[in-house]
Inverse folding.
């Protein structure tokens, strides 16, 4: 397995393309948002916290659209597991991608976990799967905001992200954390 690659603000993010539940393919290269594309990586069907988290996003999707934000949620789940997640979690509005390779997850700086068996939701964890991450990507394909996690807990709240978007859009606030080599400044 490859090492984790940290993504840097104001730098291009890796290419990303996944099949969608319901048909078709989602590609970052095809996105033309007014403000940002928000990419939400989730653990998979086995994660009950993911279900609640994504349902909250599903309910707020129109609020993100009003701010010019395109949204995709995706995991390394198979098509069957992603379809089951959409139904079980009552996700009515989100574009739901599946089949994220673990190599691609590493390119995005995501952590990888191994199975602990059956979870409290009654679903078995895959042998290997990626942990959560959330990224805001500018229309030019550069990273504006990113967060990755080693656990399913304490993720960024979508209500807070909406509030932050109001500020950064109104103030044209720059991406922070952009210094690559602080010793050379």
């Amino acid at each position: 397995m490859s090492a984790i690659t940290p993504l840097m603000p104001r730098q291009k993010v890796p290419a990303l393309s996944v099949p969608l539940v319901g048909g078709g393919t989602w590609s970052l290269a095809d996105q033309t948002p007014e403000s940002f594309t928000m990419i939400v990586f989730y653990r998979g069907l086995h994660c009950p916290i993911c279900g609640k988290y994504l349902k909250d996003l599903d309910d707020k999707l129109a609020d993100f659209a009003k701010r010019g934000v395109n949204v995709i949620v995706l995991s390394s789940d198979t098509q069957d597991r992603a379809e089951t997640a959409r139904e079980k979690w009552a996700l009515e509005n989100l574009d739901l991608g599946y089949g994220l390779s673990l190599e691609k997850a590493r390119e995005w700086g995501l952590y990888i976990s191994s199975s602990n068996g059956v979870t409290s939701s009654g679903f078995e964890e895959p042998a290997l799967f990626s942990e959560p991450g959330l990224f805001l990507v500018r229309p030019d394909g550069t990273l504006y905001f990113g967060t990755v996690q080693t656990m399913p807990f304490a993720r960024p709240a979508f209500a807070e992200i909406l509030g932050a978007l109001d500020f950064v859009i109104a103030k044209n606030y720059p991406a922070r954390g952009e210094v690559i080599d602080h010793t050379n400044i």
About this structure: The chain is about 25% helix and 20% strand. The two ends are 34 Å apart (CA to CA). Residues 62 and 93 are 9 Å apart (CA to CA).
